[in-house]
Model the fold of this input.
Amino acid sequence: MGKVSDLYRQRVAEGRIRPDAAQQSVLPHLDRVLDDIAAAPAPEKRSAWRAFLGVGSPPPAPAARGLYLWGGVGRGKSMLMDLMAEAATVPVRRVHFHEFMQEIQAGLNRARLRGDRDTVRPVAMEVAAKVRLLCFDEMQITDIADAMIVGRLFQVLLEQGVVIVTTSNRVPEDLYKHGLNRQLFLPFIDLIRQRLEVVCLDSQVDHRQGRTAGGQVWFCPADAAAKAAMDGIWDELTGGEGAPRRIEVGGRGFDLPLFAEGVGRAGFWDLCGKPLGPADYLALSRAVQVLMIDAIPRLSASNYNEAKRFVTLIDALYEAKVRLIASGADEPEQLYNEGEGSFEFERTASRLREMQDADWGQQAD
Done:
């Protein structure tokens, strides 16, 4: 089994990451997880149905203790998760927590159609049959459907010898805070404390802010030069990687065209040309830490509905302290100069200007 600390030192020597004392302080915890996996006997896998019926060998011993790494945005948690997945020599999956839960919910629906009485166990067993180490990035529980099954899901995975490592912006006790029927979720927090080592990445440096702070984050006009600049920032923040992400809202959802490493990217019409509302934009603001919006047009009576949605979107991003990088037809104050809604847009223009400040949003949790 490799060591995360060795890969970290290698990346520093190559100039691919900047050394950070807080990151270095958590490397032993990541190494400990891989050492524990290497020292533990590999669990004997049974098929989901044989395990469900209790047929075959007894269930494996509980998994080695995992890790819950939490801290503010831009502290390098996702990067450390990447290094852990790379260093592991056992079957590993590194996945965004939201994406994983979507897969689980789809599996539960299939189990219900089969008529399974216990829908969670066979789905969890299918996962356990494929991996020994599950690396979740950005654990956050905002959906009641996820909140009601995640405890049972983790319990079965851990029973089957799967080691779980996850990152989050929140301490475990703040997960699903103020959520509906939260008392039913509290045992999951206890499970995290019992089975995962909880470690805070307490860095004073926001590496993601450092890439944009002091640099240009609003580009106009929205021409080829602006697109090239936006593409360059995207490459810097994500390494050029990215894939569509489904933003779920109350049993429905919409697609964000590109998402990677907490950074989302979409065109104006992707977000404002569709019948989306406050709940959609609030869900989006919870899903991303940085949002890039391409080609914001001039706003007027001719695109009044789209302009109203844009105002609602900016309000949601502003309240959530999401970092905004955008290209537009003009400066914020000149986007909406006449027609119904132009007076009200002055507040949005002011927020867009404030969101360009180098230190804006650094107080986000």
